[in-house]
Amino acid sequence: MTDSFCFTPDNAETARVILSRYPANRKQSALLPFLDLAQRQNGGWLSPPVLRFLSETLDVPEIKVYEVASFYTMFNLKPVGRYHLQFCRTTPCWLRGAETIENAVCTHLKARMGETTPDGLFTLSRVECLGACVNAPLLQVNDDFYEDLTETTVITLLDDLAQGRQPTVGTQVKRQTSAPIVGRCTLVS
Ligand code: FES
């Protein structure tokens, strides 16, 4: 970890465009998009130098930057693996078998929630509703959603990622986006 951070020239230009959306005396309003931009540049997490840089750039107390960064699960305050697995455990996903999916992944990767696998490939996190309940249960991997998962399809998904294959994003069953599936309306017990 380096002890300093600043935006690359490309990201500095993106930051300038973001800032232009807000009044000059309200630049702290750009904190959320700046956190996202900085995290992407910094390998998926917000290190102390990144938080300090954002504090100085936006003229926001460092503790406030930390408060915002620690509130949202989309921001990581420690390093994450190449694939950040975010398991939704809110009621619709839970009713559709999220716990089974989570247990299958933990067993397969020999890792617990909050951990990163020793090869640095996968980090496991638990999050609240991802806003795609209609295709529950689902898993977010970095920026992509994988939906309608089963124990079998989630393991195939992990194996594909580990082998460098890009899985099909979205629903993992034969349905058009979130159109109803005939005969699949029972709750998982
Ligand atoms: S409950 Fe899982 S996406 Fe909404």
Structural class: alpha/beta
Spell out which ligands are present. FE2/S2 (inorganic) cluster
Radius of gyration, in Å, reads: 19 Å
Q: Write the CATH architecture name of the largest domain.
A: 3-Layer(aba) Sandwich
**SSE series:** HHHHEHHEEEHE
Number of spatially distinct domains: 2
| Low-pLDDT sequence parts | none
- CATH third-tier fold name of the largest domain: Glutaredoxin
Helix content: 25-40%
CATH class of the largest domain: Alpha Beta
Whole-number mean pLDDT: 94
How many strands, what sense, and barrel or not for the largest sheet?
5 strands, mixed
What is the end-to-end distance? 46 Å
Q: Give the full name of the CATH homologous superfamily of the largest domain.
A: Glutaredoxin
**Approximate strand percentage:** 5-15%
> Count the helices. How many?
7
Strand order of the largest sheet: 2-1-3-4-5
The number of distinct β-strands equals 5
Shape: elongated
Descriptive overview:
This protein has helices at 9-19, 31-41, 48-58, 62-71, 91-95, 98-109, 151-162, and strands spanning 83-88, 122-127, 139-141, 144-147, 170-171. It has 189 residues and is of the alpha/beta class. It is elongated and about 55 Å long. The protein folds into 2 domains: 9-71, Arc Repressor Mutant, subunit A, CATH 1.10.10; 83-171, Glutaredoxin (3-Layer(aba) Sandwich), CATH 3.40.30.10. Helix content is 38%, strand content 11%. The relative contact order is 0.10. A 5-stranded mixed beta sheet has the order 2-1-3-4-5, covered by helices on one side. The N and C termini lie far apart (46 Å). The structure holds FE2/S2 (inorganic) cluster.
